[in-house]
Design brief:
Elements lengths: L21 H24 L26 E2 L3 E3 L5 H4 L20 H9 L4 E6 L4 E5 L10 E7 L10 E6 L4 E7 L4 H5 L5 E7 L1 H8 L3 H22 L2 E5 L5 H7 L15 E3 L8 E10 L4 E3 L2 H9 L9 E2 L6 E3 L1 H9 L9 E3 L19 H6 L15 H9 L29 E7 L8 E5 L6 H7 L18 E6 L3 H7 L10 E7 L1 H10 L1
Antiparallel strand pairs: 1-13, 2-7, 3-4, 5-6, 5-8, 6-7, 8-11, 9-11, 10-14, 12-15, 16-17, 16-19, 17-18
Helix pairs in contact: 1-9, 1-14, 3-6, 5-6
């Protein structure tokens, strides 16, 4: 993300550096090494292992469970229309989006509402005899939803007569007007019929349950939100790109997050009334624009200067309080401060052509529309340990996990297909899959290579006894490999902290090609 991680794409956009004093250059290298050391410390300290879990609260403090809904008190509420079942049936056929995007719709009150309703809105309410809670379209770790969303848009008829910044309130399906921005902002920097979506994270919402691991889950959830936004935009014929050259300061002023007081990190974990931990950390901002745009000039230095002027705007609303008491896990806030990204200059936003994913079997989708799929998504909570999955369904799922789509003779590397094309860097994440009950496939360990430039090093780093053979019936353009035939249910359960992964038809582990990120950090 633009402010909370070091993305490999930013390296190439860095401005040309003038020769420096050797002592200053050495000091900067040492500072970067110290940052890298701290990031690795957080990574290792917050990993679970077979002997003990990472540090957490050892129980849930229900009296101080964070309010899942951020509101800005006194901000004008701009209501958005809801959709009837008949309107939702007009949604595109779900698999069609992976083949090509529909013609772009114009920005309007209705399309903005459709966009948010199918990406970040509430999707259902759950009720028991003791409590009531909401579900949302975008998935979230523990259903805690640390991610907040902001719309920065030109004037929209029946919504705002001037360009504006607004916070999305999912419970009300409304926009909270935070500020009006200069009229020439969008015309100067972006293509017609485009707008911005910004994401921020409230670390406290995740650390309330997960302790020190909360920062991990916040970044994880931002990824979910990016994917949700990408699919909703695609259904309207819109494309999405993260503006990765912007830094933390630009994102903070763009979304009006300087409203939160500066937070001084304690030297150890502390508990008490610490309202400052409810601040929002800026994560990223995405440009949403009509599909078919191949790229355009974008002076990031000039854009940065314009955004920094947002601090002078008349910002409306005071953020509500989320809890009475808090626990501040110091390592989260130290790490988030260290990985804040500066502005990296560039002069063009590159948009690669859309690449379709493979369609193995249309019958897998059962005629479902985009609206039906995204709004009826639920977490799996009841597995019987018996039901099987068809092999073609398994291969279809994996085909949509490929960053570069499916084109004969092309390697997987660049992120060109849905929902990954919003990300401007190459794929760095792979999937190890424990297959338990897929018809026509032996039980065992399989591996999906999502960046084929990594194949040699991945193979070298793993058990030399792994066979690395293509499974039966696997499409030629799907880089899936069988590594080991074995009943892996017990191992999958252990690796998943004794959750019910042994009862699933398949389970997976995500592997990041960490050394690429680490090498980038050394030169950032």
């Amino acid at each position: 993300m633009s402010s909370s991680s070091f993305s490999p794409s930013s390296k190439s956009n860095s401005p040309t550096q003038q020769p420096q004093n050797p002592n200053i250059e050495q000091e900067q290298k040492q500072q970067q090494q110290n940052k890298l050391t701290h990031v690795l410390k957080y990574h290792n300290q917050t990993k679970h292992n077979f002997n003990n879990y990472a540090r957490g609260p050892h129980g849930l403090d229900w009296a101080n469970q964070p309010n899942p809904f951020r509101r800005y008190i006194s901000s004008p509420l701009l209501s958005l229309p809801h959709f009837t079942p008949q309107q939702e049936q007009q949604s595109p056929f779900y698999p069609s989006l992976f083949n090509s995007l529909p013609s772009p719709k114009p920005i309007s009150k209705s399309t903005i509402s459709h966009f948010l309703y199918h990406s970040l809105a509430l999707s259902a309410w759950k009720i028991t005899s003791f409590s009531t809670w909401s579900l949302r379209v975008n998935p979230s770790s523990g259903n805690l939803h640390p991610t907040e969303a902001y719309i920065i848009a030109p004037s929209i008829e029946s919504l705002s007569d001037s360009p504006f910044v607004a916070h999305y309130a999912p419970k009300e399906h409304s926009l909270e007007l935070r500020a009006k921005i200069p009229s020439g902002f969008f015309d100067k920097f972006f293509p017609p019929n485009s707008f911005l979506v910004g994401f921020s994270s409230i670390f406290w919402r995740e650390s309330w349950k997960y302790g020190e691991r909360g920062f991990r889950y916040c970044n994880h959830d931002v990824g979910h939100a990016i994917g949700a936004v990408s699919m909703a935009a695609a259904s309207l014929g819109w494309d999405v790109k993260i503006l990765d050259s912007l830094g933390c300061d630009e994102l903070k002023f763009l979304m009006g997050l300087d409203v939160f007081p500066e937070f001084e990190t304690p030297t150890r974990a502390v508990k008490g009334k610490i309202p400052e931990v409810e601040f929002e950390h800026p994560d990223c901002v995405m440009l949403v624009f009509p599909s078919g745009v191949s790229g355009f000039d974008l002076d990031y230095n000039e854009l940065s200067n314009a955004i920094l002027e947002f601090s002078k705007l008349d910002w409306i609303g005071k953020p509500n309080s989320l809890s009475k008491e808090h626990v501040c896990w110091d390592i989260i806030y130290k790490t988030s401060e260290i990985v804040k990204k500066p502005l990296t200059l560039g002069d063009r936003l590159v948009v690669d052509p859309f690449q379709s994913s493979g369609l193995i079997s249309e019958s897998v989708y059962k005629g479902l529309t985009v609206s039906e799929v995204v709004r009826k998504r639920r977490s799996a909570v009841d597995m019987d340990g018996v039901t099987t999955m068809k092999r073609e369904s398994f291969y279809q799922i994996l085909s949509h996990c490929l960053p570069s789509g499916c084109e004969a003779g092309k390697k997987q590397r660049k992120q060109l297909s849905l929902p990954f094309r919003a990300l401007p860097w190459d794929a760095e994440v792979h999937a190890a899959l424990f297959v338990h009950r897929v018809e026509g496939l032996p039980q065992g360990l399989y591996f999906l290579v999502r960046n084929e430039d990594h194949f040699g090093e991945l193979k070298k780093a793993m058990n030399p006894d792994f066979v690395w053979t293509k499974p039966e019936g696997c499409p030629d353009d799907l880089p899936l490999y069988e590594l080991l035939r074995s009943d892996c249910r017990r191992l999958a359960k252990q690796l998943s902290c004794h959750q019910v992964c042994d009862q699933l038809r398949l389970s997976l582990c995500i592997l990041e090609f960490l050394h690429c990120v680490m090498e980038f950090l050394k030169v950032c």
